[in-house]
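1st attempt posting a full record on here, be nice pls
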Amino acid sequence: MGYDTVMAVPSAGVVLDADVTVPPHARGLVLFAHGSGSSRLSPRNRMVAERLGGVGLATVLTDLLTADEERRDAATGYLRFDIGLLADRLTGVIDWTAGQPALHRLPLGLFGASTGAAAALLATVARPQRVRAVVSRGGRPDLAGDRLAEVSAPVLLIVGGADRHVLELNETAARTLRRSSLWIVADATHLFEEPGALEEVAGAAAQWFDRHLAGVDLDLDDYA
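the predicted structure (as tokens):
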């Protein structure tokens, strides 16, 4: 039996809001780490989460900053680039899932957008036995620094073909990561606002997580 609810998640000394969706007979779990200046209410991440739920994956979309921190960050912008802080919070959410009856047995993946991708990669280093796969959407893996080479989970780097600077950063990261694949969405910009671009992101993410969490490798057309 599935459920869809908002939960308070204790993590790294604070309490974070999270939207938790568990479809019936869930086969895996994906935690989302939002990017710069965004939140768990990001329409892009929520669209991807809905598609993942459609293929049997539970999702947790969590704010990595408290409401007060988000207000301060909106004025200063400094917390969104505190990758160590964001990674610690995400690692705390990973640990929280271990105590949740509906979640703790599910194979776990992380989906990070923009700066959230770097936080996801660092959290993967912190919990290598728990995280089985990572997807980065328009991510900044370079912000993970030297720890990038320590990521053991397979990583899918999704980048817009027109997002030239971020594409170059991801091409460099792909050469550093132990197990990675680079997926370029043709002509897409950083926010994947072009027609069909975000749908391609969602399909690629679903395929990656199905392969590495659920142990199947379905054709991308199954997610169209």
